[in-house]
């Protein structure tokens, strides 16, 4: 491993999002301001406080997965593999022509195979009646559900990767932190190509139940399509989502040599912990502000260089005020001049996956010079007084994007993406 | 230039650049606490026994390495008990020991200069089983508010950072058994970017019926009921592994930062690391472990002849043992380096295993003795110089720790004594 700090760029994007299979459909959804939040499907949800989710609509067979793959892969792994395949095709990279040892994988996930585990648990416990769960009903692929590292293995097999491979799991910042991890692996020279991103499929009874218990999710069950309302005074919790976004990332010089299309450079990243509470946030946003400042310094960008902020914007009062404070702390008065939006208003909060889905949105914003909007923002919260781009996408020259995440465990992450020509002018 | 000759933790320190280990905390079947673990390990004392944490009778595998005599209330504030899984409690105890060992108290250093990077494999599975049980037998309203974080993979990092006021760059890696090394490597990345101190390693365990079923599904658990024959890596009788719980957490610091604050213990330096992934099954290509070893040595700037001992992954299955022995022999020559697997005493601790091996390797370097592999009669066809029976006194300056995770993960880490040559 050498520490020569090589520059790292995104050359392929694959997205599996609620309401959108594929990066193209995903961008159309975002730029149209439509929402994909609905009542939960797939299991009986009538007993839950919050019964809304943003779910993906895909057929694994139609997406090219074989019967054995479908059987052994949890839904989150399936989504990762489908998005990975899209990103590899999109990048135009011929992985078969690369040294497998120089290809690696870092995947993020917060909840792993929670859906598969919930389903298998019901069987072996006979719906919770047996504490000594019955081995006679054990699924043969249960270990693949037990350890989310199995997701990274699936993607490595798809890509023919034999370099550094791992899962990063830091709750709701996993999607940012996994890509940052892959960037480190590339920057230090431990690999030349990384397949990286994140996936989560947490829409299961146990996840609904635990978010019900802490009232983190919105109970606005009669208005599912407008239930996710970041920065709106009437917001009352987030909408659970699912999805995956996977990228092909390469060392910049090598990508240029092969004539790859470069979406964006990962120019800066930092993460901090709040060391405060497993689910709570300090209102002052100090840790996120610190992460933003360090990421900007690393990227050598100033506040006035930032053309768009992709907010965490989960739609809890605590979060929205926390990160608004963080933007003001780190960017000063310039924070008022930068468009800020939360795509969670449209695709929900897919926990460990959303950070990568938001990186995809950020890279595509640079690609198209369009700021995706914050849907459902009708009644501004006076304590959230930045420019949150309500309802309608906005055209704007975008060279530099700040995207942030915040999550249980106290994790706060910030990433700066710049355009293919180096971003900041 | 002559380096000072030392026995035990160094008191007068040379300044080392790069990451150094300044504290160790251990919660393992061999002992709660570093010295207890080390004494048991040198004595070759087995800690594998019939499972007591639940009734294992319905299951084909009934042995495990459990941490015994652990009363959470003796170690942790009462408010932390209801919100933590067993493995998180063990992790909190190990973290506190490691920080005390490094003589770092809360508030001693700026909060943003300290981080936490841990490895996980299955998260707080016992906590998760209890909540699933309530959900399906009683209804969703009975699920604990703590479920939202007590089982997830990031829990140990979060809880340690909160308890010790660490607000710097942190992280969590999941790569099955390899994670214990991958976490340390990621901590090293944070140090290189300016973080001064990181608590890192893995403490793991899912010895509950639901977790046990998941582990059984790997088809790698030994079904032997014989305490002395259940886990026999590198033996012709190898028949799978025994699972365990626990692990180790280390305090790693930038060498200069450690010197600046006057750290008194320098167990060693983290000098090399590499991770690889095996080819997809069925391709017939060479497993990638050899490449991980060579990568870690190159990273450390060390040749194979400088390695004094290898702490093996020791899968305990004939195919995997053969792969590991082949990789070791390809780099060091047949019988070319002493190899040991103290995890024969504890069982395999998943994300906790490799960081415990790193801790044990550092203690081995400190005391110039290689702890033994127990119960094993080495298969001569594997041509390993396996340290069995008694501990072996040796001049130890450089140790290589190997870890392999289910699915194809390989990691290798080199740790070295900090101050030049030891007495030869």
Descriptive overview:
The complex is a heterodimer of chains A (425) and B (424). Chain A has 425 residues and is α/β, with parallel strands linked by helices. Chain A is 32% helix and 19% strand. Chain A folds into 2 domains: 8-257, Peroxisomal Thiolase, Chain A, domain 1 (3-Layer(aba) Sandwich), CATH 3.40.47; 267-418, Thiolase/Chalcone synthase (Peroxisomal Thiolase, Chain A, domain 1). Chain A contains 13 helices and 16 strands. Chain A is globular. The two termini of chain A are 32 Å apart. With 424 residues, chain B is of the alpha/beta class. Chain B is 30% helix and 20% strand. Chain B has 13 helices and 17 strands. In chain B, the strands form 3 sheets. In chain B, strands 1, 2, 5, 6, 7, 9, 10, 11, 12, 14, 16 and 17 form a 12-stranded mixed beta sheet that branches. A 3-stranded mixed beta sheet of chain B has the order 3-4-8, with no helix packed on it. Chain B has a two-stranded antiparallel sheet with strand order 13-15. In chain B, helix 10 (289-300) runs parallel beside helix 11. Chains A and B meet through helix 4, helix 5, helix 6, strand 6 and helix 7 of A and helix 4, helix 5, helix 6, strand 6 and helix 7 of B. Strand 6 (165-168) of chain A pairs antiparallel with strand 6 of chain B, so a sheet runs across the interface.
